[in-house]
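> example.struct
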């Protein structure tokens, strides 16, 4: 009888260790996901602001060259990797929780908004290309207005995640 009791305790210990390690893995990926999102959002909020300065200083060649370097480095060295990592870690979290959770309406809505954010990111890449090639047709006011898009999406996504509406 003592042997069976010891075997059960070992089984429970191993089960608890598995759950504990799984939870640590989940929290690790959740932390990495949040770090990537913060980096991505910082770039999405800052790049259009640089575009504003770029457009407003179109006559100053030296300033324009500096803005082009800043825009390129921000987009390709910070924003793009952060976006990719946000997606990777987000999908890992979804797989850890089970893809069946994708049936939840709030998760579908969040996913939809993140897709819009991704298209916004890619649109900024097109704007970057136009500015790089001195082919920009947009005003500084346009860039000021579109600079609000990621803020609105961020607010919606945060409320969806926190409240998880049915």
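> example.seq
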């Amino acid at each position: 009888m003592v042997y069976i009791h010891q075997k059960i305790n070992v089984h429970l210990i191993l089960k608890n260790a598995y759950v504990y390690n799984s939870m640590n893995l989940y929290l690790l990926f959740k932390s990495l996901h949040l770090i990537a999102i913060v980096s991505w959002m910082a770039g999405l909020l800052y790049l259009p602001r640089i575009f504003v300065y770029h457009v407003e200083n179109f006559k100053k060649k030296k300033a324009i060259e500096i803005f082009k370097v800043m825009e390129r480095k921000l987009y390709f060295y910070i924003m793009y990797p952060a976006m990719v990592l946000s997606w990777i870690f987000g999908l890992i979290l979804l797989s850890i929780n089970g893809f069946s959770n994708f049936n939840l309406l709030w998760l579908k809505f969040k996913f939809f908004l993140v897709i819009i954010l991704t298209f916004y990111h890619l649109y900024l890449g097109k704007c970057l290309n136009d500015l790089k090639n001195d082919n920009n047709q947009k005003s500084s006011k346009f860039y000021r207005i579109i600079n609000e898009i990621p803020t609105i999406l961020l607010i919606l996504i945060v409320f969806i995640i926190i409240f998880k509406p049915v």
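> remarks
The mean pLDDT is 91.
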